Amino acid sequence: MSSNTITPKELAQYIDHTLLKPESTKAQVRKICEEALEHHFYAVCVNSGMVSTCREILRNTKIQIASVVGFPLGANDTATKAFETNRAINLGASEIDMVLNIGALKGQEYAFVERDIFDVVRAAEGKIVKVILETSLLTDEEKKKACEISVNAGAHFVKTSTGFGGGGATVADIELMKSVVGKNAKIKASGGVKDFEFAQKLIAAGAVRLGTSSGVQLVKGLQVQAGY
What we know:
By secondary structure, the chain is an alpha/beta fold. It has ten helices and eight strands.
């Protein structure tokens, strides 16, 4: 798809409308669900404790509910991640965004990292699992290895960032991740996606989802630019 021909409706379908701040209230979560309905975003992305709140509003709609797991550090025990995954799905989540064990990856404990992801994939019972790499903390070689491991473990997506680890999505990282996963996994760009032109570049580089708390502004910015 050419970035020059993307429509507001098409951009909205890339967006995981996100609210993960620790001070977020149920009223704020309800608001992002209402915004997702209004603008036809693909999904909302929240902490697992807010999944049931989203389900109240989004039940019987096409909007997906993504729950983060092991967030934001990724250092939780694997069994805890698996339990949180299963619990989130039982509450109504249709997608899981998990943080890989960054320390284990950097320590080259690759079998452990793969098992950590695999157990979440298994606990998700066929639901979409996205693996958050936290790219700002990794070297390019570590990013490549994380992508390889994620694919081997059965994950459906690799994702750039939590938004809490410093740094965020870059075009270079999307291109690097795409060069590794090819057609074996999809890519979600998250962290600092607040500008329409930047969003276009991320999509052109290979991202098929954009995790952002600025979805409304992105779509409205596009509407102004395109004259809609």
